[in-house]
Design brief:
mainly beta, Photosynthetic Reaction Center, Chain H, domain 2, six-stranded mixed beta sheet, 2 helices, 13% helix, globular
């Protein structure tokens, strides 16, 4: 993957999608080797996902993870 400016992505609150194309929230911060994702819905969810789970960033709007939505809850904190 190309060099990514995680600080810039977090400031812009880019959308995050899982490998099965489910929108799972917005990146709000970078913490060590992780990205912090906040998902709003009927309940607020916060996920700390290792950067190793990022598949790609499309360069404009969306960061794609290499895990399906069903596994995202294992990163809830």
């Amino acid at each position: 993957m190309a060099v990514v400016d995680w600080n810039e992505i977090a400031q812009a609150k880019k959308v995050v999608k899982t490998s099965d194309q489910a929108a799972c929230g917005n990146i709000v911060a970078e913490y060590k080797d992780n990205i912090i994702i906040i998902a709003h819905g009927s309940k607020l969810h916060e996920y700390m996902v290792p950067k190793s789970k990022v598949d790609r960033y499309d360069g404009s709007d969306v960061v794609y993870l290499n895990i399906p939505y069903s596994l995202l809850s294992s990163f809830d904190f």
